[in-house]
Structure formats: structure tokens, C-alpha cells
């Protein structure tokens, strides 16, 4: 009989390593199926909670936040592009010029979970930002992407206009911050095992098999 795991994937849609980590995790789950299955819950984390609505030039932002030189940033972008290519995710690093606030995206993702479309929306938002270089803080973009993954666009627009799920997103963020999550992606399995960073599929596969072999993983 297969073992089912709970996975809380703590991440931000403006985090390139979160896109890499998610695609790696998906590949690992394909490798361990059908012996191991998982229910993925996407949890919110804002890399830049104080970012203004206009966003910020990404080179300027990374220089200010991390002290990285332009040469270091170019080298990092190329490494990210290659890692994405390895797991089947396309980064258009040349066109992505700004970084944005993602709070509204997290509100929409919270709602999408109740509609059974959270995973699809998460992937679509990552692709909108990193592959198509679109603004994930734009409500027009969020509504359009919601419709593309089968969500009700009128309801998505209403949620964004009313501020619904803001409290729930903040509560979730606070919960994982209090649990010690300071960087993403953070992959929490069965609410007790943590895998940090955009690991290769082989790492996720090994850990998934090890945890599934333990007695705390329920049989299906």
C-alpha cells in the first residue's frame, strides 16, 4: 500500500529558487509514485513585504538587499537559468527587470486552495513572473491567470478588491516565521521534517522515501 505525506511548501512567487524547488519536488514525486503520494499545501512567504506598488529595479534591489555586484548578479542569474532548464522551468532572465509586492498573489493562492486549483495557480504565477516577465502585483494579471487555470474570474476580482483572506495569509506567514522559517523555499514534510532550498530532484526523492518508510506516514 502507498504512503501519503503532507507537504507544506513555503514560498514566494517572486523567488526563483522556489520555482526550481517546486519543479524538483514534482519530479521527485513522479519517481516515488505510486509507493509514495503527497498532498501539497502552498504556504505564503513574502520576500519583500514592504515593497511599494511600483516595485523596484531588480539590480538596484539585489544590490541594496544583498550587496551583490552587477557581475555577481549576472553570474547568479545564469546559474539559476541553468538550474531551471535542468528541471524543465524557463527563466527569461534578460527581460525580468523589476521585483514586486506579492501579497495579493498570496491571497489569491489561499482562495485557490479551497477550489482545488492552488497548485495550478502557483505554477502559473511563477511562469507569469519568471518566464513571461509579467507583474505579479497587477490585479488584472492575477485575474487573468486565475481564469487560465479554471478559477472564476469574477470571484477572483472580488477577492482582490475587497481584501479578503488578508488575515488568513498574515496568520499563515506568522505561523511559519515562528516555526523558524527565514528563507524559502522551505519544504516541510508531515509537519516535522524540513528540506531547505531549491534542492535537486534526487535529494527530494531520497528524503521522501526515508520519511515514507517511517511509521508516522499514513497508509492509503
UniProtKB/TrEMBL annotation:
Domain DSBA-like thioredoxin: 7-208
CDD domains in UniProt: DsbA_FrnE (cd03024)
Pfam families, alphabetized: DSBA
InterPro entries: DSBA-like_thioredoxin_dom, Thioredoxin-like_sf
Cross-referenced PANTHER family: GLUTATHIONE S-TRANSFERASE KAPPA (PTHR13887), THIOREDOXIN SUPERFAMILY PROTEIN (PTHR13887:SF41)
Designated name of the protein: DsbA family oxidoreductase
Organism from which the protein derives: Massilia jejuensis
Amino acid at each position: 500500500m502507498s504512503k501519503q505525506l503532507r507537504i507544506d511548501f513555503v514560498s514566494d512567487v517572486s523567488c526563483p529558487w522556489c520555482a526550481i524547488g517546486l519543479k524538483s519536488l514534482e519530479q521527485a514525486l513522479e519517481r516515488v509514485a505510486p509507493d509514495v503520494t503527497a498532498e501539497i499545501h502552498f504556504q505564503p512567504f513574502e520576500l519583500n513585504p514592504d515593497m511599494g506598488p511600483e516595485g523596484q529595479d531588480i539590480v538596484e534591489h539585489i544590490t541594496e538587499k544583498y550587496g551583490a555586484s552587477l557581475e555577481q548578479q549576472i553570474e547568479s542569474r545564469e546559474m539559476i537559468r541553468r538550474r531551471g532548464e535542468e528541471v524543465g522551468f524557463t527563466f527569461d532572465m534578460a527581460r525580468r527587470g523589476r521585483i514586486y509586492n506579492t501579497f495579493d498573489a498570496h491571497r489569491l493562492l489561499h482562495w485557490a486552495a479551497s477550489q482545488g486549483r492552488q497548485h495550478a495557480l502557483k505554477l502559473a504565477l511563477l511562469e507569469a513572473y519568471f518566464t513571461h516577465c509579467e507583474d505579479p502585483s497587477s490585479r488584472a494579471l492575477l485575474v487573468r491567470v486565475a481564469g487560465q487555470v479554471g478559477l472564476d474570474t469574477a470571484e477572483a476580482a472580488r477577492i482582490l478588491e475587497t481584501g479578503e483572506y488578508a488575515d488568513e495569509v498574515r496568520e499563515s506567514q506568522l505561523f511559519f516565521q515562528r516555526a523558524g522559517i527565514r528563507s524559502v523555499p522551505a519544504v516541510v514534510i508531515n509537519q516535522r521534517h524540513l528540506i531547505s532550498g531549491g534542492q535537486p530532484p534526487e535529494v527530494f526523492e531520497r528524503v521522501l522515501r526515508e520519511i515514507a518508510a517511517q511509521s508516522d506516514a499514513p497508509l492509503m
